[in-house]
Each structure stands twice: as structure tokens, then as C-alpha cells.
């Protein structure tokens, strides 16, 4: 299996690049944000519980997200690899993921982080909020809250994988094609 984490702050372009990468490399896309939004649309119990966290820019509790990832993994065991997008978002999630993969005799090959300035991120998210229907993108206060959460809770994930020698940072500003090319260069060297 080849397992990749695409890492970066809200609005850094993880979703856009993931769509292309899963197609090129035949990986299964695991986006916890997409899974949670699906649960909300389906009005499941999990979705109802997650909605308030998401709308206020907070993280959904670890046990909920980890449970969701476990069951997604079980459903796609035969995949040749996974692209994790928006997960892990806390140190506890990173540990849970490492343990899950180890129990399947596999591991994270690499983490690639997209580097984008906060000014550019706010612009992109407010712009996406106009058309996406995502309430968490429509309000600048919620967007700023998500950055604060990213700094406090998610940046330790970068440290976790840096310590493991599995972390690469690339520029996340430029054209979608340029960024995709930088991603492919790193992946081609490891796959
Ligand atoms: P990007 O624009 O780069 O794709 P994003 O931050 O806009 O990133 P999502 O990854 O879709 O969007 O996440 C949206 C919201 O869903 C988060 O703000 C959070 O509330 C919740 N969420 C998603 N993934 C997780 C996770 N792993 N742990 C906890 N909460 C999560
Ligand atoms: Mg996303």
C-alpha cells in the first residue's frame, strides 16, 4: 500500500489536489471533511452531532472522527493506498492513524504540506463561501477561528511526522498545475 497525507491549513487546496492525485495514482480519497458533510446531508446521528462543531469552526471530537476513519478503512481494505485529506488533524488522530495502519502491516509513506499565506487563505475561503453553500466558509470570524484551531491543535501533527522523517513542505501558491507537478515529483520518488 502507498499511503499519503496531504496536509495544510483550511483553504490550502487539499481537496483540489486530492481529486487529481487519486485519479493519477489510483489511491482511495479519504477526506474527513467530505465524510462529515455527507453525514450532515444524510441527517445521521453522527452528522447532527458534528454540525455544531463545524459551523463554529471547531474540530469534531477525536473519537467520532477516528471511528469514521476506521470504518471507511474497513470498507476499502482492498485499496492500493489511501490519500488522507483533512485527517489527521490532532496529535491523537495521528497516533490513531499510525496504529490503524500498523495493524494492517502498512504505514504512512509521506506527508506533503501545502504552504499558503494566511492572507491568501482568507481570500480563497471567502470566495469559496459564495458558491459552496458551506456555512463555515461564509463568515470571516469562523474562518479565523479555524486558523487558530489549526495552529493550536493541528500543527503538532506536522511535528509528529517531521520527527518520523516523513514531512515535506511545498509552495501552495501558484497555478493548480504547478502545485500538482510539485506533488507528483515527490510522490514519484517514493511510490
Ligand atoms: P481544505 O479547504 O484545505 O480542503 P477545510 O478546512 O476547508 O480544508 P475540511 O477538511 O472539509 O475543510 O473540514 C471542514 C470542517 O470539518 C473542519 O473545520 C472541522 O470542523 C471538521 N473536520 C474535518 N476533518 C476533521 C478531523 N480530522 N477532525 C476533526 N474535525 C474535522
Ligand atoms: Mg477540503
Task: Tell me about this structure.
There is one protein chain. This protein has a single domain (2-190), classed as Rossmann fold. The protein has a five-stranded parallel beta sheet with strand order 2-3-1-4-5. The radius of gyration is 16 Å and the shape is globular. Helices cover 62% and strands 14% of the residues. Helix 1 (14-25) crosses helix 9 (176-190) and helix 2 crosses helix 3 (45-55). By secondary structure, it is an alpha/beta fold. The structure holds adenosine-5'-triphosphate and magnesium ion (MG). Adenosine-5'-triphosphate (ATP) is lined by residues 10-12, 14-15, 32-33, 36, 53-54, 58-60, 65, 86-87, 89, 93, 136, 146.
List the keywords:
single chain; 191 residues; alpha/beta; Rossmann fold; five-stranded parallel β-sheet; 9 helices; 5 strands; 62% helix; globular; binds adenosine-5'-triphosphate; binds magnesium ion
